[in-house]
Amino acid sequence: MRVRQQELGDRNIVGAKVAQRRLELRMKQKDLLTQLQIRGVDLNASGLSKLEGQTRCVTDVELKQLAQALDISIHWLLGMEAPGGKTPPD
After folding, report:
1. pLDDT tens digit string along 38-55?
2. What is the fold, at CATH topology level, of the domain defined by 15-77?
């Protein structure tokens, strides 16, 4: 596995969570890309890398399909829900 060489960007707030969950599932980027393509999201490896690195914006359609492909809630991806479904403190 390659280690990210660049710092995380500020174009989205879900990218780090996508990468975290993908790695928890021991899923490769190409496997996630396949799951997204099955769900109608046309994203390439560079786009996913930029999304995870938070240097690319995420569309609402992508957000929904990422949550489904990774079997997590949109709220968790947005940092609005802690593990176990609880709302984190402000």
Report:
1. 999 999 999 999 999 999
2. 434 Repressor (Amino-terminal Domain) (1.10.260)
Name the burial class of residue 24, with classes exposed (0-12), middle (13-18) and buried (19+) by CB atoms within 10 angstroms of its CB: exposed
**Residues constituting the chain:** 90
Compute CA 7 distance to the chain's CA centroid, rounded to the nearest angstrom.
16
Whether residue 81 is predicted with pLDDT greater than 90 in this model: the reply is no
Quote the distance between the C-alpha of residue 28 and its chain's center: 12
The Cα 13–Cα 47 span in angstroms is: 15
- When the pLDDT of each residue in the chain is averaged and rounded to a whole number, the result is 90
d(CA 22, CA 40): 19
CA torsion through residues 48, 13, 6, 24, sign:
negative
Tokens standing for 50?
């930029």
What pLDDT score was predicted for residue 5? 61
Structural domain boundaries of the chain? 15-77
